[in-house]
Recover the amino acids of this structure.
C-alpha cells in the first residue's frame, strides 16, 4: 500500500472520515491512529507487525523507568539502545556480516560455515527504531516528560504517514500533538492537500520517469561509455531527490490534514554551495538525528581538530551503513566524510573564506553537485567493483555516441532536469511546500488542473516503489 496507490486513497479517506467524526475525543483518535497504522504496516508483511509492537512496548516501559528511577536512568537508556539496535542489527545486518566474514575466510583459504538465514527485512525498521531511541534519550536528558498513556506513545512511533520512510520524528515535537484532540481545519487541510499533491507529481511524473532511464542504463552499465554513465547518475541524482522528497511532501501533507505537523526534510539540496550546506538541506531529519544523538554524544567538536574530524567521519560511516547492508553504502558515507574533511581544511585558509569573485556561487553549486553525483555512483551501484568501474569510465571514456542515442530516446528526461531546478528556485518553495494560497483564484485552480493533467498524462508507464522503503 503506497501513497500513490488507489488502495491507499480508499484507506486514507475512510480513516479521515472516522478520525474527525470522533470530534474532540483524543483517546479514540489515537486508538484509531494506532489501529490504522498497524493495518497500514501489516499490509506489507504481517510477520513484521509483532516487532514494532514489541519495540513500542519495551520503550514505553523503559521510559517510565527512566522517569521513576532517574538515578538509574543511564542503565535504562542503555537497555533501550541495546534492544533496539539488536533488533535493527539482526534483521538488517546479520546476513551482511555473516556473508562478509565467509567471503573473507574463503579468500584466506579457510572453510566457512554457511550461517546465512532467510530473514525478512521489516520495512521502515530504521525509521521507527530511531523514533523510539530519540524519545528515550530526550527523556533521559530531561528535554521532555514520559508519556503517561501508551496510545499517545504508540501513535507517535507508528504514525502511518511517516512510519515507512520518515521524516524521522522527535518525541519533543510530536507527542504533545498526540496528547491533544485534533479538529478539522479547512485552511490547514487545504495547505496539506497542496503539499501532498506536489509530492504525488514529483513521484509519478518525475521520479518514476527518471527511474525508467536509470534502470535501463544500469541493466548493462559496464557496456556503456563514460558520458552515458555520467548522464545516468545525474538522472539518478534527480530520481532519488524527487522520489524521497516526494514521500516527505506527501507524508507532511496528509499529516497536516490530520492536524499533525511533521518536520521539514528537504530544502533545495541541489543548490547547495558546499557539501556541508548540502547536508543542511538533504534528509534533514536524519542529519539532525545523527548530530544530536551520535556526533554530540561522542564529543562533537569539543575535543580538538583531529577528534572532530574522527567524529565527523564516524557519523558519516554510520549514516552510510544505516542506509543498507552493503559496502557500497559505507563507501558513500566515507566519501561524504572525506568531502567534509577537505572543506574543513581549505576553510582554514582565511583568503579562501574571503574570496568571492563574480560567478563564484554558480561554480560552488556545480562543484558541490558534481561531488554529490560522484558519491551517488556508490549509492546506486550493486557492488564496490561495479562502482569503481563506472567511476573509471566516467573519468576516462569520453565517447558520446551512446549518450546521443540515449538523449534522443528520452528527450523528456533531459527537459525535466532544468524544469526541476526552475521549480526549486521559485518563491513558492520559500516555506518548503507548494504554497500558492495567495495566488488569484483563476491562477490557483489553473495550476491544480495543470498538475492533474501532468499526473494523468506523464505518469511513468511502470510504477516503482519509493526508494527509501528498502532502508
Amino acid at each position: 500500500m503506497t501513497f500513490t496507490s488507489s488502495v491507499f486513497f480508499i484507506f486514507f479517506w475512510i480513516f479521515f472520515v472516522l478520525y474527525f467524526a470522533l470530534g474532540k475525543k483524543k483517546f479514540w483518535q489515537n486508538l484509531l491512529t494506532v489501529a490504522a497504522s498497524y493495518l497500514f504496516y501489516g499490509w506489507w508483511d504481517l510477520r513484521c507487525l509483532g516487532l514494532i509492537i514489541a519495540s513500542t512496548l519495551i520503550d514505553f516501559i523503559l521510559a517510565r523507568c527512566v522517569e521513576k528511577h532517574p538515578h538509574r536512568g543511564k542503565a535504562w537508556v542503555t537497555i533501550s539502545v541495546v534492544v533496539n539496535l539488536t533488533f535493527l542489527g539482526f534483521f538488517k545486518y546479520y546476513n551482511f556480516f555473516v556473508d562478509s566474514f565467509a567471503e573473507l575466510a574463503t579468500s584466506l583459504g579457510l572453510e566457512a560455515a554457511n550461517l546465512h538465514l532467510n530473514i525478512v527485512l521489516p520495512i521502515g525498521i530504521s525509521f521507527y527504531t530511531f523514533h523510539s531511541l530519540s524519545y528515550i534519550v530526550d527523556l533521559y536528558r530531561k528535554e521532555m516528560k514520559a508519556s503517561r498513556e501508551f496510545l499517545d506513545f504508540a501513535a507517535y512511533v507508528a504514525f502511518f504517514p511517516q512510519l515507512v520512510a520518515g521524516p524521522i520524528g522527535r518525541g519533543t515535537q510530536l507527542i504533545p500533538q498526540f496528547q491533544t484532540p485534533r479538529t478539522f481545519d479547512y485552511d490547514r487541510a487545504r495547505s496539506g492537500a497542496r503539499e501532498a499533491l506536489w509530492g504525488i507529481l514529483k513521484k509519478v511524473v518525475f521520479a518514476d520517469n527518471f527511474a525508467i532511464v536509470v534502470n535501463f542504463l544500469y541493466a548493462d552499465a559496464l557496456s556503456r561509455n563514460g558520458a552515458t554513465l555520467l548522464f545516468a547518475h545525474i538522472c539518478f541524482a534527480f530520481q532519488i531527490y524527487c522520489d524521497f522528497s516526494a514521500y516527505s511532501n506527501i507524508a507532511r501533507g496528509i499529516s497536516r490534514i490530520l492536524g499533525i505537523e511533521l518536520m521539514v526534510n528537504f530544502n533545495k539540496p541541489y543548490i547547495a554551495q558546499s557539501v556541508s550546506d548540502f547536508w543542511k538541506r538533504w534528509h534533514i531529519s536524519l542529519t539532525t538525528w545523527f548530530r544530536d544523538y551520535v556526533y554530540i554524544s561522542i564529543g562533537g567538536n569539543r575535543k580538538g581538530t583531529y577528534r572532530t574530524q574522527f567524529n565527523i567521519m564516524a557519523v558519516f560511516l554510520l549514516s552510510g551503513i544505516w542506509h543498507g547492508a552493503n559496502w557500497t553504502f559505507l563507501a558513500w558515507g566515507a566519501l561524504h566524510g572525506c568531502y567534509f574533511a577537505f572543506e574543513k581544511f581549505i576553510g582554514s585558509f582565511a583568503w579562501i573564506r574571503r574570496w568571492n569573485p563574480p560567478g563564484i556561487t554558480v561554480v560552488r553549486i556545480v562543484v558541490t553537485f558534481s561531488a554529490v553525483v560522484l558519491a551517488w555512483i556508490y549509492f546506486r551501484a550493486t557492488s564496490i567493483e561495479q562502482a569503481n568501474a563506472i567511476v573509471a569510465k566516467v573519468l576516462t571514456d569520453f565517447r558520446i555516441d551512446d549518450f546521443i542515442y540515449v538523449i534522443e530516446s528520452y528527450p523528456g528526461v533531459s527537459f525535466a532536469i532544468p524544469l526541476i531546478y526552475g521549480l526549486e528556485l521559485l518563491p513558492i518553495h520559500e516555506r518548503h511546500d507548494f504554497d500558492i494560497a495567495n495566488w488569484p483564484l483563476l491562477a490557483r485552480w489553473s495550476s491544480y488542473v495543470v498538475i492533474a493533467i501532468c499526473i494523468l498524462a506523464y505518469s511513468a508507464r511502470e510504477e516503482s516503489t519509493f526508494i527509501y522503503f528498502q532502508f
Summary: Residues 428-434 have pLDDT under 50 and may be disordered. DSSP finds 20 helices and no strands in the chain.
